[in-house]
Amino acid sequence: MKRIIVLLISCLAILAALRPTFAFDASVGAPPRRGEAPAQQGQDEAIRLSSDLVVVPVSVTDASGQPVSGLKIEDFQLEEDDQRQRIISLGDPGMHALELALLFDVSGSLRDRFPFAQQAALRFLEAVLGPKDTVAVYAIGRAPRIVRPRTLDRQAAGAGILTLEPTKEPTAFYDAVQWAARDLAGGATSGGRRVLIAISDGQDNSSMRAGLSDSLRSLQQADCIFYSINPSDGSSPLNKVALQGQQGMETLASQTGGTAFLPDRAADLAKVFQKVAVELRSQYLLGYYSNHTLQASSFRRIRVSVPRQPGLLVRSRQGYYPAKS
To answer: Pairing state of beta strands 53-61 and 313-316?
Structure first.
């Protein structure tokens, strides 16, 4: 009898210890409390649709290279993998924050024009950055390094630019592009326009992790527009190594909707930065929901045109990797 009583007491103690595990959650399946809004059917679907919106920055210029304004949704045609898409929005660039990464090549090959590039970049920040826009500054040397993390403070970013000095280091150009693109994607806000500007000759002799194709994929995965400004002397013919570097930057730019500049003189650097600033302020932002059925990891090619005005030059990224569900 005593053994039975002891056994019953032990069982009760075990049940008491396990009670929190089996505690009933009254909120599961219960009606909303007074003053609480009931969950709306389709709310999750609305969130999903918002996250599937594809925003495509588009630059449109005339034959003289001047931005064209005043175009409407019906003027554009957008195709994804040869399938016509319905454009549902034509946003103003001011509605979407600019998230900028400036990459400065500090290798010895750019020593002579380095001060000109610094001053031009400072004026560029003053011209292009708004109160919601962010900028981060990176150095391209033997290995990429961050000089000023992402900030809303243009003065702080400018101070970071002024701390840069040319060195005799080799150049890990593609490592730096890949790193900055991933950094932009990792800390970017939803809907922001991501832009990477490299002040470099593109001559890579030190990258350990990335090449041209790796950098391009990282830019595309980050939905990032790539611009390059080559401070080398564009008035003289480029040797084989210099030409390869410039062509690599042209590939990155053309595939993402940017431009690769090669000014003839150091004095032209300010004009090039100003041209980029004007372009970023005048971009059209086309939005659409893809009707594609391929898996999320597949690269999707984009083509944007203005059929009614075939004489205009239209530039946009040539594709994207959709976000995984």
So the answer is: antiparallel
Let me know if residue 111 belongs to a domain. yes
Q: Are residues 121 and 270 in the same domain?
A: yes
pLDDT computed for residue 16 by the predictor: 45
Which strand ranges, in their side-by-side order, compose the sheet holding 83-85? Answer: 83-85, 77-80, 300-305, 319-320
Answer yes or no: do 118 and 226 share one domain: yes
Assess if residue 25 is contained within a domain: no
Q: How far apart are the first and last CA of the chain?
A: 62
3-state secondary structure of 53: strand
pTM > 0.85: no
pLDDT at 92: 79
Are residue 83 and residue 213 in the same domain, yes or no? Answer: no
Range of the domain at 164: 96-281
Q: Does residue 29 sit within a domain?
A: no
What is the spatial distance between Cα 209 and Cα 196, in angstroms, rounded to a whole number?
19
Listed as ranges, residues in the chain with pLDDT below 70 are: 1-51, 188-191, 294-297, 324-325
Residues 74 and 86: their CA atoms lie apart, in Å, by 10
The answer to whether the beta carbons of residues 71 and 284 sit under 8 Å apart is yes
Distances (CA, A) of 134 to 58, 84, 100, 137: 21, 34, 6, 10
User: Is 258 inside a domain boundary?
Assistant: yes
Indicate left, alpha or beta for 65 from its phi (over 0: left) and psi (-120 to 50: alpha).
left
**pLDDT for residue 188:** 59
Retrieve residue 167's tokens.
């060195």
Instruction: Give DSSP secondary structure letters for 262-306.
Output: --SSGGGHHHHHHHHHHHHHS-EEEEEE----S-TTS-EEEEEE-
**Residue 297 and residue 312 in one domain:** yes
